[in-house]
Hints:
Helix content is 7%, strand content 44%. It has three helices and 13 strands. The protein folds into two domains: 94 residues, Beta Barrel (Elongation Factor Tu (Ef-tu), domain 3), CATH 2.40.30.60; 68 residues, SH3 type barrels, CATH 2.30.30. Strand 3 and strand 4 form a beta hairpin.
Amino acid sequence: MIKLDDIFKIGRFYKPHGICGEINFSFTDDIFDRTESPYWVVEIDGIYVPFFVESYRFRGETTALVKIEDINDEQAAKLLADHDVYYPKAYADDAEATDNIISWHYFEGFRLFDKNDDFIGEVVAVDDTTMNVLFQLKMASDGSLRLLPAAEDFMLRIDTKQRCLYMDIPEGLLDLD
């Protein structure tokens, strides 16, 4: 069974394209083009369901047309429309060799440490609704929730195997209300 902890959001399916089962896909992360996962995941009625991608072709910098195996007509493609699309974290770990941030949502569930290797808390959510992406942290000290800018400039190293993120957090930033 696929759990939310095993995946991260990379985009959303929209309306079908044509009559052969292709569907419009708007993505926030092109991890699917940089690594190889045999499947993507769609949440349907509260269950995370794997779908095997037959092919995709880019239409722009953040859009693509996707053909899913066994989805061969417009009616079947409509069933996936308006659903979020997720990518398995296990396959995204293969992208560690690149120097690019995989996706901010990828860091959900990571344990955050400061430059002195002190445990700060866990990234429980990512707010990417504005240009300034924020990590929502559950603080180790008292369980409270704090926001921290998700800035590459603060990142020191990423341990994908242990799911740990090390950051140089400016003094006092986590004390702000």
